[in-house]
Fold:
Amino acid sequence: ELYQPKLLALVETEIWPNLIAQAKQQQIPCILLNARLSEKSAKGYGKVLRLTQLMLQQLTWLLAQDVATQQRYVDLGLDQSKSQVVGNIKFDIAAPEQYAQQAQQLKQDWQLAGRQVIVLASTHAPEEESLLKQLQPHLNSNPKLLCIVVPRHPERFDEVYKVCQSLNLNTQRRSLKQPIQIDTQVFLADSMGEMWLWYALSQACFVGGSLNEPGGGHNILEPMVLDVPTVIGPRYFNFQSIVDEFVAEHGILIGTDAVQVAQQLLSCLDDPLQTQQQVAHAQQVLQRNKGSLQKHIQLLDHYLQQTASS
Structure:
């Protein structure tokens, strides 16, 4: 009674049977936005089919990221005419302007013009240690090489610093406001909210959560938008359909283990022609998928206007 909602918008995989039932009861339109459903999750819903069917029949509309997702929902009981495939809103992403400027400034301040910069982004244990072990001989033999490490979880910052020390790598820390110096081998980006900045400084990147167990992966679109050639490990099921599309177009590199990932990162630096092609292919995928956000906004506007006029 206190709230008078005009619309219930659920996102991606957040489908709540009780909430949907209550919305339906009060004749509030209920829309699932940017919907995704993996094969595994679909099997889970299939085990409670009666409940799932009832819930899906109560949805007003569903905007699916891809055809496979739409079909899985239809197989579970969604009326196909209440859904459309509009792509993934994650593709409608742009780097905030301030970071490009900040990156330019740091390149000057930290004399990075001649350096070869690799970013290990959103890493989990033991990704930092296994990759730095592979990169260590190259960092020792090539003074131009620099590795920026950005652990996913702040509570692991000190632990990752100890890993760098144990490998005898000359390491500076963002949290201590230490600059990158001529002889810095590893820069530990132990800060929050600066990921765009580190991508903007890099010439190749690894996106973590993809070599560890169980993995699942993190967002590869941020470096892609900045034209940074991207490498990931084999466990990226949280971003399956996005990664699949880049794989099909040769816009991403996938390593089976830390040895291969390290080799691929170094090859991104050493083979500019191949890297240029990879980045161009990634750009094609990005461009092709733009526009989903606009379609989402149009649909929401449509239902908000309907409820306003009723």
Summary: The CA atoms of residues 65 and 87 lie 4 Å apart. The first strand starts at residue 8 and ends at 11. The mean pLDDT is 95.
